[in-house]
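Batch 3, record 17
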Amino acid sequence: MNDNIIEINTLNLWYGENRALTDVSLPVRKNKITALIGPSGCGKSTLLRSINRMNDLILKCKIEGQIMYHGQNIYDPSIDVNSLRKRIGMIFQKPNPFPMSIRDNITYGPKIHGITDEKELDEIVERSLMQAALWNEVSDRLNQSALALSGGQQQRLCIARALSVSPEVILMDEPTSALDPLATSKIEDLACELEKEYTVIIVTHNMQQASRISDYTGFMYIGKMIEFGDTESIFNRPTENLTERYITGRFG
Amino acid sequence: MKKFEDEMDALIEDTLEMGELTSMMIENSVKALSKGDTELAEDTSNKYRRITQLDSSIENDALRILMLYQPMSSDMRVVATILKIITYLERIGKYSKNIAKAAIFLSTNPSVCSMDGIPAMGEIAVKMVRDAVLAFKNRDISDLHDYSERDTYLDSMRKEVLRENMIHIHEDPSSVDACIYYISVSRYIERVGDHSCKIAEKVTYMVTGKHVEID
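Prediction for the assembled complex:
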């Protein structure tokens, strides 16, 4: 049985003349955490952004190859990008809450997608904040500005916002690099909780983080997927010398 | 990175010192026993103190490296292997000390009872310790493939020594003290073989990343 929710097949991507991805293939298992690691500029964030077509926003970006999601190529002209991004949400490196109340941050997406019933919106707010492990900290001040929250709380709010539209896949681009160790640990615990209901793909520079939370790991280098496998094998005995050198810190 | 590599090199260096010292202790303790050389026995017994020092300093250094650098992949396997094998090496050192003590007792209590088999057992056990330490040093496990056979051979020789000494005790009850020492020594050597097998297992893991079991 094929448990892959997403299958990336020989993806090539150029930013103008620069080739950022070369023949990248990657299976993404449903309800698992897949980590992408590699040195800066290796293409891991580019690959992540390709998965919900964030690269469409970049001028002169050319993409070849396929990203199959539910048996359909997401680059097919018939795909509605907005509904794609509803199914595949994204969390960024820096928490980016909207400059509005905590509640409005969460209801923004569902409202765009046509939900107007206040009771239903209340339920979504509670469910999303619960799932993002933030409810207990903010339930008594939902109408206060989201910008008053701490960095770690803001990042969990962003996760709650992504969850509010009931996505299937959550893309995380270095979600803890701007957070302190305590907030990082909360986000990591959260990622592991989310795995039960969602599929998570995370880009991280922190290899301990990748080894702690992910089930599968892909190592990328200069736009290529050098090695992909279950996380324990990758961090205990990678087959590629390049992977070994990168994860033991002997690179260059 | 430089600091990490220096600390790893020092850790490996200390482990090799411990491995070489342990190899020498088991070799010399058996030699002291065979030749009745009490001076060599005393000298060997005294080396055990250095073994315990290395055991604790290597453990501290390895834990420090884990804490400070969180090594990955082959580096992690090296540190994990060292943490395990120093325990086995310490035990081999302790058995060598016990054999040296037995050598001292037996040299002053001459007995007619047979110690056939013990030098041969010693030779095999010494080779097992040496090969395992060398495999660690060179990260080459090609000499470790027959540890199971070597260990089985030691077991059967120990049983042989036991049987001969039991017969001897029946024939000449006055030899009981000496015979018990011989039986103990054969047991120590057989345990040295067991610990060498454990070192061989861990070194195989270090080199290949795969866990193996040597029966």
